Amino acid sequence: MKGAVKADTILCNAKIYTKGRLMDGGIAIKNGKIAKIAKEPNLPSAFSRIDLNGCIALPGLIDVHVHLRDQGRAYEEDFFTGTAAAVSGGITSVMDMPNNTPVTMDSASLKERMQTAQQTILANVGFYAAFPERLEEIGRLIEQGTLAFKLYLTTQIGGVDINDDEALLQAFAEAEKFGIPTAVHAEDKAAIDAASAAEQRRGHSDVNAYLKAHTPDIEAKAVKRILKIIRKSKAQIHFCHISSRETEVLIRESRRTGLRVTCEATPHHLLLTSSDLRRQGMILLTDPPLRPEGTTEELWKAARSAQIDIIASDHAPHLITQKTADSVWDVKPGIPGLETLLPLLLTKINEGKMELHDLIRLLAENPAKIFHLRSEGFLEEGYNANITVVDMHRRGRIEADKFHSKAKFSPFDGWHVTGKPVKTFVEGRLVMDEGKIVAKAGTGRILRSQINV
Ligand code: NCD
Ligand code: ZN
Predict the structure, then answer these.
(1) Where residue 329 sits, what CATH number does that domain have?
(2) Ligand 1 atom with minimal separation from the 97 CA
(3) What pLDDT, in 10s, does the model give residues 285-327?
(4) Hey, whose CA ends up nearest to atom 2 of ligand 1?
(5) Which of 142, 222, 358, 424 has the lowest CB atom count within 10 Å?
(6) Contact, 244 vs 295, CB < 8 A?
(7) Residue nearest to ligand 1 atom 5, measured at CA
(8) What ligand 1 atom has the least distance to the C-alpha of 240?
(9) Could you tell me if residue 314 is inside a domain?
(10) Residue 39 belongs to a domain
């Protein structure tokens, strides 16, 4: 277009998901931002052009539940391998959980984690923190850029006593003063401990024993407790990886009473059941565990009808040796998911199980809204140029041994998929092209809270 400022890059010959529909045209990128979305004749000139061959350009997907490990647990995953897994799976931004070594729970540990990450990340990375011991530190963590807090009710992580309702309310309220949400892993520790001890006394150490110690009731108990604690507050709570209909209904009803509550589900809880766990064994062990047949359908319904707000991977890499003990009590729960999430969901779209706009709501728009990422989640002028390009027709097979993640195993290994990410752009730069990493380590950006502190 005459007279317009020259763009850095034009992505041409694309179907662009913008303003809730697919539009044929191109995207002009300048300084890492979307400068223009238009039919090709109306785009400015540019220094380079990338032909998307008629593929679909989606807002960069945001995975709000990822364990990148590194530091003391770099043997399981590090910032480079974890973010390489993200971009190769079509995910441009991830939110890193705080159960690290050291635990991310004060401004010093967060700063160190950010500095370590900045050198090597390929995707954008934002950070959760666990609650610090002293309330005043919450403001400092937010100033340092934490996007959200994470509360584990399964185990004591961080400085706030998880048995103290009043202390929890104070911590939620302090975070909320700055507009920062708290994500909760809702399974009740006392109930898990009692049921696990009972199973162990009986000499039970298989996956059935684990399922008895991590029932849907134990999940619901923790959800009810948090809903009660926040009953009269404005605290913003996000429930991680909900896995049962009962929990989903509790959350739905709490919203009707005006509570600021959202929730997420994982692909493994949508696609696998406890029968798969029994059949395939310990590598499928994760918290909360897989549920009986029937639950998956309920979760799909809730995800389609926007009762579940987000789908997140809960990418939880472990060494394969940590997944293969004889006794279930010695196995680390958690499975990698960054490289399987999108191909699996695109396959489900092709099968008619969900629609493209559901995917965008669950993996881009809602994550950006709930975690206040104001420059992400939408393909519109002025937003950051984080873009996931997918080919809906590309067929393939999930091959865990080819993962970029250090955790080269998956419950979905060998599954046939239709629909794959083919290119990933982070902050305007091509970082993944046809499965290959084509950008320098450090291309990703640290996502910091944009709250005024
Ligand atoms: C998580 C991990 O490995 O860090 N594992 C999991 O099964 N989801 C921790 C956790 O959320 O319990
Ligand atoms: Zn968790």
Answers:
(1) 3.20.20.140
(2) 4
(3) 999 999 999 999 999 999 999 999 999 999 999 999 999 999 9
(4) 316
(5) 358
(6) yes
(7) 334
(8) 11
(9) yes
(10) no
Q: Annotated catalytic, 217?
A: no
Cα(150) to ligand 2 centroid in Å equals: 9
Q: Which of 70, 128, 287 has most ligand 1 atoms within 8 Å of its beta carbon, as the pocket-test mutant?
A: 287
- CB hemisphere CA count around 418 (13 angstroms): 7
pLDDT digits (tens, 9 = 90+) for 411-434: 999 999 999 999 999 999 999 999
Is residue 4 scored above 90 in pLDDT? no
What's the domain range around 116?
A: 75-370
Segment 329-374, tens digit of pLDDT: 999 999 999 999 999 999 999 999 999 999 999 999 999 999 999 9
* Ligand with an atom nearest the CA of residue 68: 1
Among 314, 330, 358, 433, which one carries the catalytic annotation?
Answer: 314
- Tokens 């009762």, residue located: 307
Alpha helices in 331-448 (DSSP H): 341-350, 356-360, 366-370
The answer to whether residue 410 sits within a structural domain is: no
Q: Are 314 and 357 in contact (CB under 8 A)?
A: no
Q: Which ligand 1 atom sits nearest the alpha carbon of residue 155?
A: 12
Q: How many domains does the chain have?
A: 1
Name the residue of 156, 157, 314 whose CB sits within 8 Å of the most ligand 1 atoms, as the mutation to test its pocket.
314
pLDDT in tens, 31-76: 999 999 999 999 999 999 999 999 999 999 999 999 999 999 999 9
Asked if residue 307 is part of any domain, the answer here is yes
| Residue 138 to residues 67, 165, 179, 374, 453, Cα–Cα distance (Å) | 21, 18, 12, 21, 11
